[in-house]
Amino acid sequence: MSAPADSLRADARRNRTAILLAARRAVAAEGTSVSLALIARAAGVGAGTVHRHFPTKEGLLEAVFAVQLDELVARANRRRDFTDPGGAFFTLLTDSIESARGRAQLCDAFQSDSGWPRRLLTASVLRYDKALCDHLDAAQRSGDVRSDVAAEEVKALIIGCTAMQVSGGGRIVRLALEGLRTGKGAADGVTKVKGAALNRDIPATHPGNRDGGEPPRCCRICGVALERRTTGRPARYCGAACRKRAQRGRDRDGSEAV
């Protein structure tokens, strides 16, 4: 391969990295409504360069979230400690909960939901699932985690804990994670691997805890906390995108739409 070709490909990789970093920061600051023009300026490239790498805004946002998920997996793999598999497993859970703040933005960005399943994001999800299963298996074999817990149940717990954590229920999150432990580590386990965001008690004015009411409901697809309705049936999904995904899932299973 010629030197000019190598240089061009290196430039393309640098541009892609710069665009993803700029998009990640812009979405964190402005939300998913941020313009591609602003992202291009922040990345120091032209709008045409952004479009060459990411022909659609949805494709760029998908890449941003896929990178974030891959980073979570990479951290989990680096932390995998065969001398303390239980600690590594619970650290993965707390990291997953703390880093899930972008889930609501993801639903907003893909509101039209016309491109599911999205190959890039699906591949990242599969890598995360493998890391979670590997850590769970190791923690169960070491006796740190209950043997009757399945990976899908752990994922459902992560979704629920994410909704609670966003609403300030750090103590409830810790108690929920504690329920995964065997008697071997139940006394002091989860509190040793809590993150800063999980270290808050649920306030008296918590949206889902006013007047001693029930905890907040969360979207059945993505786990985002839902606003409590004062009239009508309780909401089950955060928006049209998750509602459509649930409908397609029911169609695939051959069940009736509810």
Automatic annotation (TrEMBL):
Regions recorded as binding DNA: 35-54
InterPro entries: Homeodomain-like_sf (IPR009057), HTH-type_TetR-like_transc_reg (IPR050109), HTH_TetR (IPR001647), Tet_transcr_reg_TetR-rel_C_sf (IPR036271), TetR_SbtR-like_C (IPR049445)
Keywords, ordered alphabetically: DNA-binding, Transcription, Transcription regulation
Positions of the HTH tetR-type domain: 13-72
One Pfam family here: TetR_N
Superkingdom of the source species: Bacteria
Signal peptide: none
Recorded GO MF terms: DNA-binding transcription factor activity; transcription cis-regulatory region binding
UniProt cross-references to PANTHER family, sorted A to Z: HTH-TYPE TRANSCRIPTIONAL REGULATOR BETI (PTHR30055:SF234), HTH-TYPE TRANSCRIPTIONAL REGULATOR RUTR (PTHR30055)
Name this polypeptide is given: AcrR family transcriptional regulator
